[in-house]
Design goal:
Layout lengths: L1 H18 L3 H5 L1 H76 L3 H12 L11 H7 L5 E7 L5 H14 L14 E6 L10 H14 L6 H13 L5 H10 L6 E6 L6 H15 L4 E8 L8 H4 L3 E6 L3 H17 L8 H15 L3 H11 L9 H9 L5 H10 L9 H8 L4 E2 H7 L21 H5 L4 E3 L5 E4 L3 H16 L18 H15 L4
Parallel strand pairs: 1-4, 1-5, 2-3, 3-4
Antiparallel strand pairs: 6-8, 7-8
Length: 530
């Protein structure tokens, strides 16, 4: 560029020099020829320097483009590295949360399945219009909702319905604004899983569910993990204290405990004390269900001295719900037997009136009216059935055992279900029923071809196949207690209730041979048998 300017200055200097001559000399032919020659040389020189400048500009432009591309590459790499670092950090936080949840309650998936199983049994939507429920749900202070009723009256299904509602509908915060996120934790205490009703297991399940609903890496997750590592302890009330000081004060927390009376008295007491301590610093709404008159129900207010609301099973709204339940069951079983309109209406009215609020009792009687084995029932049979309805739930269970259509397995099918360390699938049960201790010869021809017929024909209406994982379980957890109580009666009096069913009762609660069959033999054999 400088050389280009120098050429211009030199040419202009020659022009000025030429213009300084006399006019006649300027017009002379040699001078004009000289000027043309100088202009031509100047033009060629400018053109050369112009081309050089263009080439230099192209070089600089290319270099600038290369530098820009290199800078973009570096920035892209930096952003990619930053993104990977953030993603890795997030993954590490998720893994930390998962490890903590597994330590708190490794069997939570079983509790979740139990909730889904109960949820499928009914809706119990009548509770949403109950004044006590609405006051408890929207209370701005720690409260307890106590649900109580007879055994088999639908308390567990009601709790499962409330859990589903709380998980789907936002709560109200202290400033009465809708849309706040709430935290819900539940525990279904069942006596058919004796190892799951300890204080540590209940607290671990509650904390596990709370952690699962929090963002990975939040303060509570880190502090709780440090607490458990430092003291090498099981989940306890101190862990709830950490939660109380970590979460925003306006976050509502719902804790629901079903069948609290199924736990040992000390376990129920410890749990209530821990929740009371937690409620001192948090907006906690506790809901628990017990049988009416259960010993733990008398300790609810002393151990949790906050405002208490009460729902007693058997309200008019619940009776209306029971009528809907009967209507649905009759409709579902209509393909098995079609009744005339007047007989059907009479049966529905009598069953609802005699049930005394017990859904389980109702379900057992409907099983009698619509047997899966195709047994014929005449009008006189229906009359006799109505005249001799069971007196209470235990009597209904006794009669259910009397009506087993196929008694080839006798008590063995119930022993296997009770003794198994985990619920058996229908395939495992089919094989376990044909395993004989000491017999090493396996004959597949003895297996029934229709495995699905085992439960309806041999279970007396007391067993059910879970549609989620095909496991065979009692239709209600109280049946487990029914067999245990019967076994105690047999041992004490050498006969079952009224001397009728001693052959069915399990005299050894955890027979090692049955346990071995259920836990090991079935899993091995199932892989070999089609």
């Amino acid at each position: 560029m400088c050389e280009y300017l120098i050429a211009l200055v030199s040419f202009f200097g020659k022009i000025i020099s030429a213009l300084g001559r006399k006019t006649m000399l300027q017009l002379a032919s040699p001078f004009i020829g000289f000027f043309d020659k100088e202009a031509k040389e100047f033009e060629n020189e400018l053109l050369n320097w112009s081309n050089a400048i263009d080439r230099r500009a192209m070089v600089l432009l290319s270099r600038r483009q290369l530098d820009a591309a290199d800078m973009i590459t570096k920035i892209d790499r930096a952003l990619t590295h930053l993104g990977l670092s953030q993603k890795q950090k997030q993954n590490d936080l998720v893994l930390q949360s998962c490890r903590l949840q597994d330590r708190l309650c490794a069997r939570q998936f079983e509790r979740a399945k139990a909730w889904r199983r109960q949820r499928r049994k009914g809706t119990a939507k009548w509770v949403f219009t109950h004044d006590a429920y609405k006051a408890w749900k929207d209370s701005m202070e720690p409260t307890m909702l106590w649900i109580h009723g007879k055994l088999g009256s639908g308390k567990t299904v009601l709790i499962a319905t409330i859990v589903a509602e709380l998980q789907s509908v936002p709560a109200k915060t202290a400033d009465m604004q809708d849309g706040a996120r709430n935290i819900t934790a539940y525990v279904f205490c069942k006596n058919d899983h004796p190892g799951s009703n300890t204080y540590e297991d209940i607290m671990g399940s509650v904390l596990q569910q709370i952690v699962s609903q929090l963002e990975p890496g939040c303060l509570f997750v880190s502090q709780l993990e440090d607490h458990l590592k430092l003291w090498d302890s099981a989940p306890d009330a101190d862990a709830l204290d950490i939660l109380g000081h970590s979460l925003p004060s306006e976050t509502p927390i719902y804790i629901l405990l079903d069948a609290l009376d199924e736990c040992e008295s000390s376990v129920g007491g410890e749990t209530l004390i821990a929740l009371n301590r937690f409620a001192m610093s948090r907006l906690v709404r506790v809901c628990c269900s017990t049988r009416t008159g259960a010993p733990v129900s008398k300790r609810l207010h002393p151990l949790f001295p906050f405002r208490k609301f009460e729902i007693r099973m058997g309200t008019p709204a619940m009776i209306a719900d029971m009528k809907e339940f009967v209507e649905a069951e009759f409709e579902r079983h209509r393909h098995l037997r079609d009744l005339d309109v007047s007989t059907e209406k009479m049966l529905k009215d009598v069953l609802v009136g005699a049930a005394d609020g017990m859904y389980l009792w109702l379900a057992l009687q409907i099983h009698v009216l619509f047997p899966h084995d195709g047994t014929l029932i005449s009008a006189s049979d229906i009359t006799q059935f109505l005249q001799n309805l069971p007196k209470g739930l235990w009597d209904a269970l006794d009669r259910a055992l009397d009506r087993v259509p196929d008694a080839r397995y006798g008590k063995r099918i119930f022993q296997l279900i009770m003794a198994a360390r985990r619920p058996l699938t229908i395939d495992e049960l089919r094989i376990a029923l044909h395993v004989e201790p000491g017999n090493t010869n396996w004959d597949t021809s003895s297996l029934p071809k229709d495995k699905w017929a085992i439960v309806p024909l041999c279970g007396g209406g007391l067993l059910d196949i879970d549609e989620e994982d095909n496991t065979v379980q009692f239709i209600h957890h109280s049946i487990y207690q029914y067999f245990i109580d019967g076994a105690k009666t047999v041992e004490a009096e050498d006969q079952a209730r009224k001397g009728a069913h001693s052959r069915y009762f399990l005299k050894e609660r955890r027979n090692c041979i049955l346990d071995w069959f259920a836990s090991h033999t079935c899993r091995t054999a199932c892989s070999k048998v089609p």
